[in-house]
């Protein structure tokens, strides 16, 4: 049952079938079924996983032998949490879209994107990694551009060209690395063994860094993000913020730092500073937003900035914190966007000034939203706390001042998140919010799962941390030595 | 060789059929003849290749692979022509015959082993095209295209011939093997005449493949000629011209790589930028494809700039991917133009609502032209980037990456029109032949994108 290839192909087959389904109801039910089957197929991986540093469930076929390309995938402690995140969130995202009348094409794109994301998180061959990287991009472009807001065409073209340019530079770096490999292949392990000189590694660093920094996004490369998130349909925003930005972080951990450690030695500090600037900058801007969705979009930049800082600090705590925080942020942000979607759909606006007093007519929504906001803020006993604590610990080991400024996320995050909560839930009711219906049906189900995950991981994070611990420790140890030599 | 003879006889047969007003049998007979030629080529694959007819032609794997590609694409173009030329001209048989004559020339260009044969092949290919470009006799744009193409073609042929003459003057032979032997025998440096010959050949061949700064004829000719002729020119003719270009340089001029590489490098970079930047500004889908074909010529030149053992298969894959995507794009353009009377981007507005599957086909073709993974176009770009980087052309690849990102801008424009801009329109209808041609091309694009080993390891 733990056949990784089948896990990757399942969503593709689902997507192929759904592309021809015109009826909205049948499409959504079939899509949910496929995503749940994918989730069920993930369980054997979790059960059979041995929490050590080894690569497991590996599969390797010749793909284009004349070019040395293999289809090589596997799972270790670093990729397993992200595979779980992807396959766990996609059913929630599909369920969250039930309120809309999407036809089969929409769900086909979501599932196709899922396949691309899974390939990114499991690829052990640079070519396969790149294919997954791009394959995830096409569906999200169509999701955002077909079902998005008014400015969707211009905004999404900018997003696409921006990320595509970054990817192409990474492709050039991948081919360059391949040409240096004595065994003439694209295997991750061969790339790890390359000991290129420092000046080459600096180039490699920038080629990879641009691709990943645009995707995450890190501070000066973030300009596409708020517009794209705001204009996208909610399911698209969830995919972008919940899963897609993790591709960038994962790429840094898996590819950038181990492949170009000397480049990181030269520019890692700069990258870390950019991440921290992003934290402070995005937090301040988030505070000024009137559009609730835009506010969460900026908060996402702040959170991913801290995650990036933890990764570039490159110690066990920082990277461990990054991995668990990727999972947590995915859960929280999907919850946040879903609640805001519910509110915006019923009020017909996303303007915070037009909201207020919803807690009174909709008490359950108010409680659920509070838990999600607390998780996003990082209150103890919620999932966000564990991750942010580890991240700050990692950054602190790197340098006290970085941790001081990075720690601002906690404070600033609390400020803008709670003020948003206050504006939505408390205050005077107006004509529209007075008759606000509470959550029901599928909304209830999605939010219940999210709240359970937030509290569950917050109270008992041990198993999740345990998955990645050994793999992270070994990777940091191995690459750290090369960097310091 | 039997294939070339078959095709020549087939073309003459078609002319007679036209004389006896057997219009309905033209397409089936052409397709049958092409299929027969295809089989003859494939059967030659296993045999030993030696130059035949006093060393005039050589049917090695390289020649066979490119010839088969040209024949296949011609078959697709023929399928699209059902009904198209009955409307454009009363001389339908001439049209079929001329396409076949031009194809025969193209096949000679892919398999020449003697510079005289290269010249004759290019002339056979081009002369038929001069007529085809002007086949809409009453249409000004078509006439202009034909005249421009003829004048520019004649001009570039002059360069080509002059170059061949100088090579002959230096080496004393037209035979590729003899010229190669001459280059190898003079490692200290060949005669200055030879260098001048190479430069003139580069100019002449750059004209033929539509590389900048010798590209000025391309947009007007592609735009003015009937769409199907444009399809044929930008696929079969371009493939053959590149095959000939690469064959000559790979066979003879590798030892002099240091001399001609900078020249071609400059041509490549200019071609990429001019093609891309001008394509962005276009309002007409057809003209956009014309300019984008210039930038694709730039990518294909990568393989010649950084010439190496993988060059042949890179060009084969790239040309195949580009041709298939072009057949789809032009084929759908014909349908849309017939329905709306315009070839502007606006003509595609709202197509996805009425023809979802046709729009999906065009989307896949555009993604392939833009070089997105899981399409053949990506594999082509990937191989081109690989060969350039293998020659340490890092700057070239970075510039190409920027150009590829620019390409998104205009390739996605038609996607934006189809999917995101609403318009009142009727459903576009098409014949079974159209369906077949478009879906075969789309299917091959995806299959080659997912499993390129079918083509990549061939030669």
UniProtKB/TrEMBL annotation, chain A:
Keywords: Membrane, Transmembrane, Transmembrane helix. It is found in: Endomembrane system; Membrane. It comes from the Bacteria. The chain crosses the membrane at residues 29-50, 81-98, 105-124, 130-147, 159-179, 203-224, 236-257, 263-283, 295-316, 322-343, 364-386, 398-421, 442-460. It is a multi-pass membrane protein. GO terms for cellular component: endomembrane system; membrane. Pfam families: Proton_antipo_M (PF00361). Signal peptide: none annotated. Residues 124-408 form the NADH:quinone oxidoreductase/Mrp antiporter transmembrane domain. GO terms for biological process: ATP synthesis coupled electron transport; electron transport coupled proton transport. GO terms for molecular function: NADH dehydrogenase (ubiquinone) activity; NADH dehydrogenase activity; ubiquinone binding. The keyword Transmembrane helix applies. NCBIfam families: NDH_I_M. Belongs to the complex I subunit 4 family. This is NADH-quinone oxidoreductase subunit M. The lineage of its organism: Bacteria, Pseudomonadati, Bacteroidota, Sphingobacteriia, Sphingobacteriales.
TrEMBL record, chain B:
It comes from the Bacteria. Signal peptide: none annotated. It catalyses: a quinone + NADH + 5 H(+)(in) = a quinol + NAD(+) + 4 H(+)(out). Keywords: Cell membrane, Membrane, NAD, Quinone, Translocase, Transmembrane, Transmembrane helix, Transport. One of its GO terms (molecular function) is NADH dehydrogenase (quinone) (non-electrogenic) activity. It is found in: Cell membrane; Endomembrane system; Membrane. NDH-1 shuttles electrons from NADH, via FMN and iron-sulfur (Fe-S) centers, to quinones in the respiratory chain. The immediate electron acceptor for the enzyme in this species is believed to be a menaquinone. Couples the redox reaction to proton translocation (for every two electrons transferred, four hydrogen ions are translocated across the cytoplasmic membrane), and thus conserves the redox energy in a proton gradient. PANTHER family: NADH DEHYDROGENASE. NDH-1 is composed of 14 different subunits. Subunits NuoA, H, J, K, L, M, N constitute the membrane sector of the complex. This is NADH-quinone oxidoreductase subunit N.
């Amino acid at each position: 049952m733990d056949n990784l290839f089948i896990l990757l192909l399942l969503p593709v087959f689902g997507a192929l079938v759904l592309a021809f389904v015109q009826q909205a109801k049948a499409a959504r039910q079939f899509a949910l079924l496929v995503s749940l089957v994918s989730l069920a197929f993930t369980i054997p991986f979790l059960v059979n996983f041995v929490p050590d540093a080894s690569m497991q469930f590996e599969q390797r076929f010749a793909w284009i032998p004349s070019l040395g390309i293999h289809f090589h995938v596997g799972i270790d402690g670093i990729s397993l949490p992200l595979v779980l995140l992807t396959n766990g969130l996609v059913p929630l995202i599909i369920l969250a879209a039930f309120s809309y009348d999407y036809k089969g094409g929409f769900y086909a794109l979501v599932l196709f994107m899922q396949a691309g994301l899974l390939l990114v998180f499991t690829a052990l061959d640079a070519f396969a990694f790149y294919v997954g990287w791009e394959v995830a991009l096409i569906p999200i472009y169509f999701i955002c551009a077909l079902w998005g807001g008014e400015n969707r065409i211009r905004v999404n073209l900018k997003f696409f060209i921006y990320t595509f340019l970054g990817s192409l530079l990474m492709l050039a770096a991948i081919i360059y690395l391949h040409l240096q490999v004595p065994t003439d292949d694209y295997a991750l392990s061969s790339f790890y063994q390359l000991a290129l000189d420092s000046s080459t590694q600096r180039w490699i660093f920038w080629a990879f860094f641009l691709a990943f920094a645009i995707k995450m996004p890190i501070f000066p490369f973030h300009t596409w993000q708020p517009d794209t998130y705001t204009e996208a349909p909610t399911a698209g925003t969830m995919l972008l913020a919940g899963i897609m930005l993790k591709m960038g972080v994962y790429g840094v951990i898996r590819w950038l730092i181990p492949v170009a450690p000397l480049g990181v030695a030269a520019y890692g500090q700069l990258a870390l500073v950019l991440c921290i600037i992003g934290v402070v900058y995005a937090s301040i801007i988030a505070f000024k937003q009137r559009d609730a969705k835009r506010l969460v979009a900026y908060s996402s930049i702040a959170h991913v900035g801290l995650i990036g800082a933890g990764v570039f600090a490159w110690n066990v705590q920082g990277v461990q914190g990054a991995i668990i925080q990727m999972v947590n942020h995915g859960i929280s942000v999907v919850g946040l966007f879903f609640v805001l979607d519910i509110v915006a759909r019923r009020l017909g606006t996303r303007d915070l000034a037009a909201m207020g007093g919803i807690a009174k007519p909709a008490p359950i929504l108010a409680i659920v939203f509070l838990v999600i906001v607390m998780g996003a803020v990082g209150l103890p006993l919620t999932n966000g706390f564990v991750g942010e604590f580890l991240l700050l610990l990692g950054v602190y080991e790197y340098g006290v001042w970085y941790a001081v400024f990075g720690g601002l996320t906690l404070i600033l995050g609390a400020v803008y998140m709670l003020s948003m909560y206050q504006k939505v839930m408390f205050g005077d009711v107006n004509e529209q919010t007075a008759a606000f219906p509470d959550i029901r049906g599928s909304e209830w189900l999605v939010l219940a799962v999210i709240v359970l995950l937030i509290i569950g991981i917050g109270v008992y994070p041990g198993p999740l941390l345990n998955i990645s611990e050994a793999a992270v420790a070994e990777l940091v140890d191995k690459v750290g030595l090369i960097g310091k030599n | 060789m039997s294939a070339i003879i078959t095709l020549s006889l087939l073309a003459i047969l078609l002319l007679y059929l036209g004389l006896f007003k057997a219009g309905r049998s033209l397409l089936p007979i052409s397709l049958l003849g092409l299929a027969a030629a295809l089989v003859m080529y494939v059967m030659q694959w296993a045999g030993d290749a030696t130059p035949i007819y006093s060393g005039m032609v050589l049917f090695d794997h390289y020649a066979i692979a490119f010839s088969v590609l040209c024949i296949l694409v011609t078959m697709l173009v023929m399928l699209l022509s059902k009904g198209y030329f009955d409307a454009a001209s009363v001389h339908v048989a001439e049209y079929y015959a001329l396409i076949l004559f031009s194809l025969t020339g193209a096949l000679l260009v892919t398999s020449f082993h003697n510079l005289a044969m290269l010249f004759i092949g290019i002339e056979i290919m081009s002369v038929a095209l001069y007529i085809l470009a002007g086949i809409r006799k009453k249409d000004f744009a078509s006439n202009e295209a034909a005249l421009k193409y003829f004048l520019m073609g004649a001009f570039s042929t002059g360069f080509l011939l002059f170059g061949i003459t100088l090579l002959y003057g230096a080496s004393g032979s037209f035979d590729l093997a003899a010229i190669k032997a001459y280059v190898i025998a003079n490692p200290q440096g060949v005669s200055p005449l030879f260098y001048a010959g190479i430069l003139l050949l580069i100019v002449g061949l750059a004209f033929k493949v539509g590389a900048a700064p010798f590209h000025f004829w391309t947009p007007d000719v592609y735009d003015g000629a009937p769409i199907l002729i444009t399809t044929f020119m930008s696929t079969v003719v371009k493939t053959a011209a590149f095959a000939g270009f690469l064959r000559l340089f790979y066979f003879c001029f590798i030892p002099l790589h240091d001399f001609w590489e900078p020249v071609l490098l400059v041509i490549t970079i200019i071609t990429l930028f001019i093609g891309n930047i001008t394509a962005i500004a276009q309002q007409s889908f057809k003209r956009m494809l014309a300019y984008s074909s210039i930038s694709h010529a730039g990518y294909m030149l990568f393989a010649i700039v950084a010439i190496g053992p993988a060059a042949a298969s890179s060009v084969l894959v790239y040309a195949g991917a580009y041709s298939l995507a072009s057949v789809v794009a032009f084929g759908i353009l014909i349908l849309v133009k017939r329905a709306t009377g315009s070839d502007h981007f606006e003509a595609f507005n709202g197509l996805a609502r009425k023809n979802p599957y046709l729009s999906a086909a065009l989307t896949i073709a555009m993604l392939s032209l833009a070089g997105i993974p899981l399409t053949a176009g990506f594999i082509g770009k990937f191989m081109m980037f690989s060969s350039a980087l293998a020659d340490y052309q890092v700057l070239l690849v970075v510039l190409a990456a920027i150009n590829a990102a620019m390409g998104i801008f205009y390739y996605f424009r038609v996607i934006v029109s189809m999917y995101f801009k609403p318009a009142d329109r009727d459903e576009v209808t098409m014949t079974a032949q159209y369906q077949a041609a478009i879906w075969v091309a789309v299917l091959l694009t995806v299959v080659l994108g997912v499993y390129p080993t079918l083509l990549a390891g061939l030669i």
